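Issue 218. Parser rejects a valid record. Input:
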Amino acid sequence: MAKKTGFIGAILASFAAFLSLNLISAFYYDPRQGMNDLIRYVTDFLEPLFNALLGGPTGGWTSYLLFEKILLFVILIALVYLSLKNVELFSNNAAVLWIIAIAVPLLGVRFLDFEWLNTIFVQYKVIAFVLTAGLPFIIYFLFLYNVLGDYDAMRKIGWIFFGVVFLFMWASSTDPTFSEVYFWTAAIAFLFLLFDGTIRRTMVKMQYRALGYNRREDLARGIRRDISQADSDYAKDIINEKQYKRIKARLQRQLETIMQN
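Output the parser choked on:
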């Protein structure tokens, strides 16, 4: 038995060495072709296994969606595992937990046909579009209300500039889909310009509530205390005149914003 096992191992080792020599040679003469060969060898080797586990070409569609099925399988494993790991019945038995976490996604993904897969992929496309399209707008919004939060005129100029840029993009775009996105982004920017003061006051309220102040009078009293402390530090030469003016101007703007609410 040991001789038979050793013989099989020798054959496998020889095959692996032969394959490695071919890949090394391909990488040496043509790295791009070598990488293509490596990917092809790996996919050709693993595809039958994943086809057997996740379902092969059935219902008229081919296995080109096998990679997408694998990703769905991994996502479902993570979700099932997170759902069950805090349940005492499963958390005390890791083997049972992993069996269920793997078996349930296998049963679910194996019988997904093309129509269901396409429905799922459309939703992921929407998520990707919303996140990638909305992220620049969110970053710009946070820049205006965090960095320029105390400067009303600068925020308004920022929204005008943002809206005008997207209007130009809308006017120059030849793609109807992109054109519509540009138009509505510009419309939202001008809407935020119209309600800039309301948005700023709402954010200020959220900030002082996050700091533990339930009323604006409490926060105003804290800011007045900071102003008094700045006056004292300046009188004692702890801070210079330039620092004092900058700190006091910032605190006074905050106080004025709070008292306008």
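Fixed in the parser; the record now loads. The chain has four domains: 1-54, 59-112, 118-194, 201-259.
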